[in-house]
Write a structure and sequence with these properties.
Layout lengths: L10 H13 L5 H17 L8 H10 L4 H20 L25 H13 L5 H17 L3 H5 L6 E2 L4 E4 L8 E4 L2 H13 L17 H14 L13 H16 L4 H12 L4 H14 L4 H7 L15
Antiparallel strand pairs: 1-2, 2-3
Helix pairs in contact: 6-8, 6-10, 10-11, 10-12, 11-12
Length: 318
């Protein structure tokens, strides 16, 4: 494959790294844009350099003029790139881990049962432009709340991904590029089937009247309006649409605890179901359960002494 992506002094190394990631199955579209930015910077300022030095790395990150989270993302990507080069015998400066830390992360918001009822009542009463949009949005929000999937995963669901007989959805385009299966209850499965049949949907499930997919920005904007009508206080910092996922997971854990299940045994199962890349993220949900439902504190401590611990926010994957 010919390199028609990069132009700078490290164009071959960047291209090899990009192909390496693609061959491993990563989407890498978001990271590719960052690598192009780095490539353009080195082409402009260090076009005669032969190795990726400490000076190049730090000057690039500092000149990006972005927030802490963005600088952290650039640092992480370039660290992985440098490690790849080092493993292949090419000298490159590796940024120390956590040198560029993320800013304050979002604090999860767990919706109460009353708030969930108000959200869906507001959806029913919302003045949608047409019945198709109303039916589509109600099913989408039910899917998010009842399965805990990410909005990006839901919007990429096609008809071929749904097995109505076995009541399962296969999620292909996931955050961590790991295919997984989501179960549906009888009611939700039937409502999805009715939506598909009623409107003769033939590819993506959640589309506009013109057949084009919604994007997450559209759904987040609608969610903020629904929170307003549901009289749930919110600011730019939240609650977020993603908090439906937090709510789903904490309630799953709450149910397991109340049923006296061994949480240590279920953490790996729930972690795989949620699509987490490690158990640390799922364990964080357990600490949320501990905080949101203090009445089950003794049960959590009894069954999960080796699970609840201080969580390193840097390793979480929502």
């Amino acid at each position: 494959m010919k390199n028609n992506i990069f132009i700078g002094p490290f164009k071959n190394e960047l291209f090899d790294y990009y192909n390496y990631k693609i061959n491993l199955g990563y989407s890498f579209k978001y990271q590719l844009n960052k690598l192009k930015f780095f490539d353009k910077f080195t082409y402009t300022h260090y076009n005669d350099e032969k190795k990726i030095s400490q000076e190049i790395i730090y000057k690039f990150i500092e000149q990006t003029n972005t927030n802490k989270n963005s600088k952290s993302a650039y640092a992480s990507l370039l660290r992985q790139f440098a490690l790849y080069l080092s493993k292949n015998g090419i000298e490159a400066y590796v940024i120390p881990t956590r040198l560029y830390s993320r800013g304050n992360r979002h604090i999860a918001y767990i919706f109460t049962e009353d708030e969930i009822l108000r959200i869906f009542k507001s959806l029913e009463n919302y003045n949608f432009k047409n019945q198709f949009r109303k039916d589509t949005m109600i099913i989408l929000f039910k899917l998010l709340y009842c399965t805990g999937m990410r909005i990006s995963e839901a919007l990429n669901i096609c008809i071929k991904d749904i097995n109505f007989e076995e009541k399962i959805i296969t999620i292909h385009k996931t955050k961590n590029n790991v295919e997984r299966i989501i179960g549906l209850n009888d009611t939700l499965c039937e409502e999805l089937n009715v939506l598909v049949t009623k409107y003769s949907i033939n590819e993506y499930i959640f589309v506009r009247t013109n057949g084009k997919k919604y994007n997450s920005h559209d759904i987040n904007a609608l969610f903020r309006k629904i929170l307003y009508y549901a009289k749930i206080k919110h600011t730019q910092k939240g609650p977020r649409l993603h908090d439906l996922r937090f709510t789903f997971c904490t309630r799953c854990l709450r149910k397991l605890v109340e049923e006296n299940k061994d949480i240590n045994s279920y953490i790996p199962v729930l972690s795989a179901y949620m699509g987490h890349k490690n158990f640390k993220s799922t364990e964080y949900y357990l600490t949320l359960t501990f905080e949101v439902y203090p009445n089950i504190r003794n049960k959590i401590e009894e069954h999960s002494k080796n699970v609840i611990r201080n969580i390193d926010w840097g390793g979480l994957d929502e």
